[in-house]
Amino acid sequence: MSVLNKEVSLLYKVGEKIVYPMHGAGIITSFEEKEVLGSMQKYYVLEISGIDATHLVPVATADAIGVRPVIKKDAVDKIYKLLSNYKEEDTSNWNKRYRENLRKMKTGVLEEVAKVVSSLSVRETEKPLSTSEKKMLNNATNILVSELSLATDETDEKIHNKIKELLSL
Which one of 12, 52, 82, 138 has the minimum C-beta count within 10 Å? Predict the structure, then answer.
């Protein structure tokens, strides 16, 4: 067994539920090796919840890019509470607000993604979002739904409706 294969078995296995920051949560279906710049690289093949697509997640950098296990079911209520209670400082400068929300999304931390969903959803009820912010809200919502769905074993539709309800939309 090569060092690379040992590394794979120590991190995640086929069937595990993981989060790929900026993409969402999914289940590892297999591993693939591909030649990249002259060397063989190992990848997790990740089926993202709620979308009909697979992502190749590089094994060697998974930790550095923030790949992590899906939250436990008992942590879901904390996310729901955050969604219904989160209030952000009003930042009228959309560019600064966008950069801050993007920073939160890149962390891969579900609480931060939930803050983005909450703040942009509230802002959208007050006035129209820019095209970039609409896209970010949609992406953040999909990421949030994918992880909560896997954590609770509920459908994406049910989770999406719960989020709307909590945000009173």
Answer: 52
pTM: 0.85
Domain 73-166 -> CATH class: mainly alpha
Residues 114-169 have pLDDT tens digits of 999 999 998 888 888 889 999 999 999 999 999 999 999 999 999 999 999 999 85
Tokens of 93: 């400068």
| Angstrom distance (rounded) from CA 69 to CA 88 | 27
Query: 92, 90, 169: which is closest to 130 by C-alpha?
Result: 92
Q: How many other C-beta atoms can be found within 10 angstroms of the C-beta atom of residue 165?
A: 12
| pLDDT one-digit tens code per residue, 6-35 | 443 448 999 999 999 999 999 999 999 998
67: phi then psi, degrees, rounded to nearest 5: -60, 135
Residues counted in the chain: 169
As annotated, the residues of the chain forming the CATH 1.20.58.1290 domain(s) are 73-166
- Compute the Cα dihedral for 132, 136, 139, 141 and give only its sign: negative
